Amino acid sequence: MARYFLFSVISSFVALLCLAQEKLLTQDHREQVFAEQIPPKGLFDPLLERLQTSASAHLKQLHEAPETKETLPYAVSIENDLRHLKNLWTGLHANPNAKNVTAYCEKIFNKAKAEIQTASSEEIKKSTLKDASERIGQAVFLAERCLNEMPSLINPASFTLSNLQIRLHCMKEIKKLTAKCKAYWDAQKEAGLQDPDLSLKLLEAQVIARILLTNSGQLNLGMISFVRTAFVPKNPLNNQLGVTHVLSTMNSSWQPVIDDITKPASSNYASQEVLRADLGLSRKIPLNPFHSKWAALKALFSLSSQETSRDCFASAWTMKKPYDYFMQSLKDYGELLNYGYLTRMVDGYPDQFYFKTSLADEALQASVTLASSGLLDDKILLWNIPAIVAACRQMGIDDVQGVTCTAIKNLFKNGSDSTQITPAKIIDCFASYANLKNKQRDPQQRFRQGQYGFCVTQNHLLRAWETALVGMAEVKKNNYARSKFHSSVQLALQNTWSTLKANLPREGFPLAIQMQKTFEEMLHRQSRFVYNAAITWEPTSSGGYSTKSGFELYKRQLNQPYTIGQRVATPDDFRTFLIELAHLASTSLAQTFHSTSEILLLEEIASGLTHSMKQENFLHAAFCSYDEPHTQVVDPVTNYLQLEKTPMTILGCDHPYAAEIIDLGISFLQDVKTIPPKNPYALIKWILDLAKWKDQTQWYLRDSSLDQYDPAMNPQQAFAMIFEEQDVKTFVNSNETSDRWLYNQIIQPSLFIAQAPVDDHFKETFTNHFIEWLQQNTLLSNSTLISLETIITQINRHPMTMQEYASCFFHQLDHLIQADESSKRQLSFAFDSLFLQTLPAAVTEQLSHHAIRFAKPNWNPDGLPLSFCVFLNPRTASLAFGTLAEDRTYLNILDE
Prior knowledge:
The protein is α+β, with helices and mostly antiparallel strands. Strand 1 (341-346) and strand 2 (349-354) form a beta hairpin.
């Protein structure tokens, strides 16, 4: 741990050297956020406008509003800074033993204020204020930790000597803190359960936040130089660059935002758990507003250290994007801690987004050897393992050493001295012990608390924030899980609605239509999809279990709008939920009618609807409609726990086409907007802009020591974004906007390639291959084949370009076959894939050359290393997703 700064306390001369060195290290880092310029009109020439279909219009419009720096809600000024500085030592006034400290701070403040009033330039004012802030900040920091030593340090006759002595003692205190961090890292490394470096980063974020926060909740900006010196080396790593970025941005305008952060309400159980887990607080300590402020500030310093949760890469990095909007992030953290949810506008109306106190940690299921003495793997005792101590503290056990033997004794009833076990089982033993001492209504609650506290490699508040944001990806009807949920219910009730409409008298038909529309709207309004990062899944060979991330269905409670709602977990819950919605829809509609006959017809419709939902085959139809593979499962309703996707729970949402990009808007007040990744142009543009922003905030192109993959990307995800990819680097190093660069790099040259004429040999070869595929997939009858051959003969008579030939061929084929949506997608993929494979090698090579690689999948067919890319589809003349080998060969369209 050589990166820790070794503080010298030999003499005041050494202190002065430290001061000089510190001023060299505290360089301002750029905080520029990428602002995209709108491309000039007329960018696309007449050829592009003639050839492109509906995609061309999309290419010509701006996809995102120009980004600007966040407008600070409070102006940063000398006057604000002076007011903030004067409040710094107010918390000491109540302590009569701190009179010498407050007098010292008052003298420094008055002297600085007088010098500022007579200063000849803004630079002198800022320098004077900074010096006073550091002197007062260091005095307050020390007074709050070792007040009894302050009288011997403060010399009323000499400011300089007092400052040097206070500074030396601050160094000693900081050294104690860094020593504790070192000891923590050593213990985590010896335990070998979790990543010690990641654990240390989050602990350092907590220590830094505490240094910069006084006991009264004031930001102590005078301690920033100490933090830089102690925790940021000369050659900082990525997370340390992140810490530096926060330090460089922090100023007195943050204080009002910090002031607004208060303790969780008594009913806000989730946020209380977050606070205790993040700060490692004993259950005996009552929570107060200071804890919330501390946790929020810790979350800011953890932003660049937090590993990405197991959701799609797109959602993960959009959550990282607010990295440059610290004040809004602090407001979000405060809202989560105060209320347990985030509020965002959805379709013009405020909505709430909640989180679950559950985290995934593979270390919970690691196989370890535990001795009856509490020794783990013959190297470390349980009460010396930080993660186990954190788990026990979360369950209300403070004396881990004192209770260990009693808690684990049942594991050794057979007389053995050791056993193979998992950390999860160890936590369960401590939970059982705690339940014996103080029983709870839910016996599993303490076990869940212990698991949550065990995850010391994750910042719990950031996880809560991230998972609340991920919930925004399933808030609209056209979102992935929600659209499948709606369509499954609609398909299961399709015959019911048809029968009801057919059997009703004529005047009942419009009522049935209104009832159906109201029911479907109620279904959307009353359902909430909450993201859970650790849904218990199948058992493991070691006797434990695995977890997966995904969305869980909740029923909103109208009488308690500001609660997460009621979990819809089982098929019976699902049926009850729908029946309640049918009754609610009927009651709502009945209030708009006055005719008795209309109300009776409405009741008849509702009765028929609920009767259908109570039938045994209804749930089977809904489950099979939700996911087609369920039709192959024996009794999917009874065996719903074995299914990864049901209307109540959808697991594995990291599929590239299942997740969506969450665009929160610059102001954070705009409506939630989701961008489906099936739009290749929108996705690659977003990635390029994100790469440029990332380079401007983290300088990833300038650090040769970085891994090829971004450290925030988790290999468990569907694919990892490659910011180090040369294609992305080329854009970042250019001075062009993403729209212009995409046009120059891929669209214009690829369109030129697509305008090459196709010869008769190519037409004949492609036609034979494609007809063979159609026959193999039984998509052609004899009569259809004759019609197709006639059409092909007519097409082949005319000289055409590559794009014209492919477009015309597919259009006529589609019109002839009249396939359903699923078959049409299959047909489109096969056509484009065979078309690419049939093209001359020189043409394919040119298209591959202009393709842009942006990600690597976590799978490689036939051992061939592939990258995801976007390229111009010659048939549609628009961008498409594809796969490409490392040497830019084997270009194929991606099977969606």
